[in-house]
Write a structure and sequence with these properties.
Elements lengths: L2 E5 L8 H14 L4 E6 L4 H5 L11 H5 L5 H4 L1 E2 L5 E4 L8 H5 L8 H6 L8 E6 L5 H9 L2 E7 L8 H14 L5 E10 L4 H14 L3 E7 L2 H5 L7 H4 L4 H18 L1
Parallel strand pairs: 1-5, 1-6, 2-4, 2-5, 6-7, 7-8
Antiparallel strand pairs: 3-4
Helix pairs in contact: 1-12
Length: 255
């Protein structure tokens, strides 16, 4: 049975897509079968793995409106052992279209039932909002991984996200766990970065991953080549960080 992990934070620019793409690729390199679902209308996870977003005919939008099955939407990408359900800008319209539908929060959950057993991990790259798209991802997921940027406003909005997770647990998905909090964009030279790490670790203890994703130029460059950091530069600090995170996720889920 595949584990479904939503990667979510309503704040933009915290490393959600970078984490989705590179965690998927790292799990693939460690011989896990992975499906990445791009649930962000910006479709950066799709282009970051070499998908031509403009040519996407069947993707997350069609799955959510149940006009196509996930099997029809799955495509191969540049990362080994990784498949992707890509997104297109048309995904913007889905929140309006689902509003009147019955069980609108369960559309993704229902769609994934047919393929859940075919993968070791299914990762969902969420949009930077707490709208219906993210709600669908949290309802479908077994757990949620929360990237937190090592900067001044890091903890701002985290309370709101944790409240949303609580209400999803109460109403839609009682089995939803927190996979962990992931500190991203860490720069050891900055006192502020170190303060944020201390603060998060002090407040959330065991919920925080041991792996910290460091600021790395190669991580920023890789998406423009349509590759994960593992394919782009396997010797970089970014690749080492994400492989370490993948190992932590695997270890945590094998206990």
């Amino acid at each position: 049975m595949g584990k479904i992990i939503a990667i979510a934070n309503q704040k933009g620019g915290v490393g959600k897509t970078t984490t989705s793409v590179n965690l998927a690729a790292s799990l693939g390199v460690l011989e896990k079968k992975v499906l990445l679902i791009d649930a962000d209308p910006q479709a950066n996870a799709s282009s970051g793995l070499g998908i031509d977003v403009e040519s996407v005919d069947i993707g997350t939008y069609q799955i959510l409106e149940h006009s196509h099955t996930p099997i029809e939407a799955i495509v191969s990408c540049s990362a080994p052992n990784v498949h992707i359900i890509p997104a297109h800008i048309d995904l913007v319209a889905i929140e309006i279209e689902l509003v009147d539908k019955e069980n609108r929060e369960y559309m993704l959950k229902q769609a994934l039932e047919s393929i859940k057993d075919q993968y070791d991990y299914i990762l969902i790259d969420c949009a930077p909002s707490l709208g219906l798209l993210t709600l669908n991802a949290l309802t479908a997921a077994d757990s949620v991984l929360i990237p937190i940027q090592c900067e001044y406003f890091a903890l701002e909005g985290l309370g709101k996200l944790l409240n949303t997770i609580k209400s999803v647990q109460k109403i839609h998905n009682p089995d939803l766990d927190i996979e962990g909090l992931l500190l991203t964009m860490y720069d050891s030279r900055l006192r502020l970065s170190n303060q944020v790490v201390e603060e998060v670790q002090k407040h959330f203890n065991d919920m925080v991953f041991n792996t910290i994703i460091q600021r790395n130029v190669k991580l920023s460059e890789a998406p423009s080549f349509g590759e994960s950091i593992i394919n782009f530069d396997a010797t970089s600090k970014g690749a080492t960080n994400y492989l370490s995170l993948a190992e932590e996720v695997i270890k945590k889920n094998s206990i």
